[in-house]
Write a structure and sequence with these properties.
By secondary structure, this protein is an alpha/beta fold. It has two domains: 8-136 and 256-333, FAD/NAD(P)-binding domain, CATH 3.50.50.60; 140-252, FAD/NAD(P)-binding domain. It has eight helices and 19 strands. The strands form five sheets. Strands 1, 2, 3, 4, 5, 6 and 19 form a seven-stranded mixed sheet that branches. Strands 8-15-9-10-11 form a five-stranded parallel sheet. Strands 12-13-14 form a three-stranded antiparallel sheet, with no helix packed on it. A hairpin with a 2-residue loop joins strand 12 (224-230) and strand 13. Helix 1 (32-43) runs parallel beside helix 2 and helix 5 (177-185) runs parallel beside helix 6 (206-215). It starts with 22 loop residues before the first strand and ends with a helix.
């Protein structure tokens, strides 16, 4: 894979310089979902603040894929362009972390840590709040995985499969779902080995064995102890307890998703427990069970790819504008 370029050093954050008024909307999270929501709101002339901690999930990847017209773009460039676009419409952006939040009848108060472009302990307020905080990938504790994640240690064939097609694949099994992953990646290579690792052989069902055999996926027993890397390339998988080495060029893993949904839970949003973590329940627009609190992207669900996250952010932004408009019209009509 080619080295990604990074334009973020050329992008200046927009600061809130002394204006203490309340925002219409605060968006916590500056990824695809958050920037998309902010773009819609800025174009709708809503005073909007984006709080971006600068921890995008796809930072280890050299390119993003599957996003029509943006296929092959680096994640850093994608975000830089998004920041430029929201700035055209007066949307403010601070590099900071939202560390606490409270709600009241007239909106939300968000406490900022004061990480980069805002003063320590500053509180910002808004009538509506969008959580686009995403999730983090927790990798299995195998030495070397983290250093090569996004390069030749991968998790999503739809994101990276084309670029590594026809190479020698390995799949690190950490749960029964790893069988599914091995079957899926066999569409991109006919040389696939499933390393059972922490998955017991007895956990393979008859259907698993039949499908793996039909797909031509080899199965190797034993725990994986580490990776073999030569000249900055993955060349093999090393088993524990003298189990030997297997030549592989790519290793697919299934990280444990860790949703960044603490703020939603703190505000009392009803959460949905899934095998991939707990996420706030939302309606089709992204509204949670807390009035005025919205969730988009991976803050609302595990399976949101970048193109889906942008779509969900757009939908939430448009819905929020209508909510604010109707509330203002109703309030004016009661005067």
């Amino acid at each position: 894979m080619t080295e990604r370029t990074d334009r973020t050093e050329n992008i200046k954050d927009t600061k809130n310089t002394g204006n203490t008024g309340k925002y219409d909307v605060i968006v916590v999270g500056g990824g695809a979902a958050g920037l998309s929501a902010a773009l819609v709101l800025g174009r709708a002339r809503r005073r909007t603040l984006v709080v971006d901690a600068g921890r995008p999930r796809n930072a280890p990847a050299a390119h993003l894929h599957g996003y029509l017209s943006r296929d092959g773009m680096s994640p850093a460039d994608f975000l830089a362009v998004g920041r430029e676009e929201i700035a055209r419409y007066g949307v403010e952006l601070v590099r900071d972390r939202a560390v606490d939040v409270t709600g009241s009848d007239d909106g939300f108060a968000v406490l900022l840590a004061g990480d980069a472009s805002s003063e320590k302990g500053r509180t910002v307020r808004a009538r509506q709040l969008v959580l686009a905080t995403g999730l983090a990938d927790e990798l299995p504790p195998v030495p070397g995985l983290a250093e090569r994640f996004g390069r030749d240690v991968l998790h999503c064939p739809y994101c990276h499969g084309w670029e590594v097609r026809d190479r020698a694949f390995g799949v690190l099994a950490t749960s029964p779902m790893s069988v599914h992953q091995a079957l899926i990646v066999s569409q991109w290579s006919k040389d696939v080995t499933l390393f059972l690792h922490t998955l017991g052989e007895e956990e393979l069902t008859d259907d698993d064995r039949r499908r793996l055999d039909t797909a031509g996926v080899d199965v190797v027993r034993g725990e994986v102890a580490g990776l073999v890397v030569e000249q900055d390339r993955l060349t093999g998988i090393r088993l524990a307890a003298g189990g030997g080495e297997y030549a592989r060029e790519v290793l697919f893993v299934a990280p444990r998703p860790v949703p960044r949904t603490e703020l939603a839970a703190r505000l009392g949003a009803e959460m949905s427990r899934t095998p991939f973590g707990a996420y706030p329940l939302t309606d089709e627009r992204g509204l949670t069970t807390v009035p005025g609190l919205w969730a988009a992207g991976n803050a609302a669900g595990f399976a949101e790819q970048i193109v889906n996250a942008a779509s969900r952010g757009y939908r939430a932004g448009a819905a929020i504008n209508v909510e604010l408009l109707m509330a203002d019209l109703d309030a004016a009509g009661r005067r």
